[in-house]
Amino acid sequence: MKKIVKLEGLCCANCAAKIEDGVKKLPGVKEATLSFMTQRLVMEVEDGREDEVIAAARKVADKIEPEAEFRVVR
Amino acid sequence: MTKKQKKMVFRLAASAVFLVCGIALEDRGSWAWIPFILSYLAAGYDIPLKALRNISKGQVFDENFLMTVATFGAIAVGALEEAVAVMLFYQLGELFNDYAVGRSRQSIAALMDINPEYANLLRDGKEEQVDPYEVEVDDIILVKPGEKVPLDGVVSKGNSSLDTKALTGESMPVDVKEGDAIVSGSINLTGALEVRVTKLFDDSTVAKILELVENASSRKARAENFITRFARVYTPIVVVLAVILAVVPPLFTGNWGVWIYRACSFLVVSCPCALVISVPLSFFGGLGAASRQGILLKGSNYLEAVSYMDTVVFDKTGTLTTGKFQVAEVVPADGSAAGKTVDMAGGNGERAADSQGNGADTPAARLLRAAAFAERHSNHPIAVSLREAYGREIDQSQVAETRELAGKGICSAIMENGEWKTVYVGNRKLMEEQGISISSQPSRMGTTLYVAEEGRYLGCVVISDTIRQDTKAAVASLRQAGVRRMVMLTGDREETGKAVAAEIGLDEVYGGLLPGDKVDKVEELLKTKREGTTLGFVGDGINDAPVLSRADVGIAMGGIGSDAAVEAADMVIMTDEPSKIVDAIAIARKTVGIVKQNIVFAIGVKVLVLLLTAAGFATMWAAVFGDVGVSVLAILNAMRALQYRK
Questions:
Q1: Domain A2-72 falls in which CATH fold?
Q2: How close does chain B come to A48, measured CA to CA in Å?
Q3: pLDDT tens digit string along B15-40?
Q4: Are the beta carbons of B277 and A42 separated by less than 8 Å?
Q5: What is the pTM of this model?
């Protein structure tokens, strides 16, 4: 299942790379990319673990870039 | 500018004023530190706070922390003025980053402003504004002048012209009338149109394009991955060096202040953001510049691949040619009165036939008439092209007894001047079988049909696919751009392919290929391409999805309305001009060039500043340049990627 999250206010390219790294390592995430320019985090998540992954990803983003607003697009 | 940015401008202005006051008052008293501290706080009071907050969350080595340690360290060894300057310029650089990134995000968003907000649904004669998602196939929608076409459909009422610039990069409006298919995302310019919807919003062109564009920067280029990996090791290494610099030399020399000052400079230079930001910014700009030309790329990695393209493989039909069969030449039998060859290539078949006058006056017109009548019942593209070239209604009562002769042609009885005549239309083999001697030869390549009437040879008709207008120029420009090898693959006979290839100037031709063979051929070509270069395959997206995905860069042409192409390809050319590949290469090379300049420049300056600082030749001001200066220059350079002029 593909999940897309918008990180509004993401303003540091290095943080984006760190968040991407962190999210990739989460259990249940098959693949993840975070584009600093479009502020979109696209995750390929194992079916049935979406909520769990979204919560964990939110934590990762909040730890590295608390200023960015974490909004699930779909 | 956003509110946040305006606030920062104000803070930085205040900070600058305090800094100037501080410098002016420095020698006049012991209280000169007050304006410096005020200046520091105005510019960066939030940085130490953020550093503390992030440490409490377990995030230690971020740039807030580095800046805090660097400036506090400088203050501790008495370099108050430098500490303030570091903070001020650091924030100034951040502000500039923020602004530049915001600007280019906006310009791309504006470029891709094709998302329709609503659709005017006509229900029982009444108009209702609804979400495009709610519209069903076969619903009728109304598109008023000035509105975006929200869904793909067919015009059921009205005339207008459409602006498709956002989709194709083509600035000439397109005229549409009843029965024409129109694509979502174009803008209706002049008249109101009633449109019968043919696709749900999710399947419509605009949704596909938005999906493609929004996901484009998710596929990262090698340079992007390189720079983030580099940053991951760069910062820790410089921080460790800073610690060593602060502790080890003073153990021997005892000169603690000097070395701590140098270590602080190291920390200032250790911030990786300038490096990391300029690379995705450049690629983003490059993708934007390409989409402005009607070229959509599915990722920065493909932009990178396009820049190294050395082999271009073309599918013939529908790519180099229009994919539409047309009568190219009509050659009547030699010796017949006014037996002149009629060359019809490139022209409109209908007009050419009309210009023959009415009735079966000239041998060419008689020949065409016989062929068209004989092929009256067939739906084969060749038969269709014959009828198109003939251009007039065919009276069914004048055609009788049509027999298909498998693998050879057709035999039919047609009425001519009040008499029934037996006509044979087919290949050379058919003529030989009928004992008819062929007395004229075509000069053009293509499928040749020979026509005989009552045992007498009438002449032959050549039917071929027409070469696109800009194909030849595109091939020449590609060669000029340094593409070394251009290959054509075709399902047609090799001779037909060779003739086309010779005309447009390709290097190699492989004919008679089934779709599966094309994959094998591309695999073969991939093996023989030069190290470090890439291979692009250009197709029209019909039947060549496997090849598109096998090539390094799968390029689909005429993307509008072809979902299969948009899905399988890595690069979609929205118009049907092969010359866009040349633009894509130019944009890609420029972007990759900018990225390389930035990487070399940023790393170079940083290393140089580190060396000079360690040796004691540079002050903290150099470190500020190594951080902020480099960042600003790299970003300005990156912004160039968005600009592209032919």
A1: Alpha-Beta Plaits (3.30.70)
A2: 23
A3: 999 988 888 887 777 777 888 899 99
A4: no
A5: 0.80
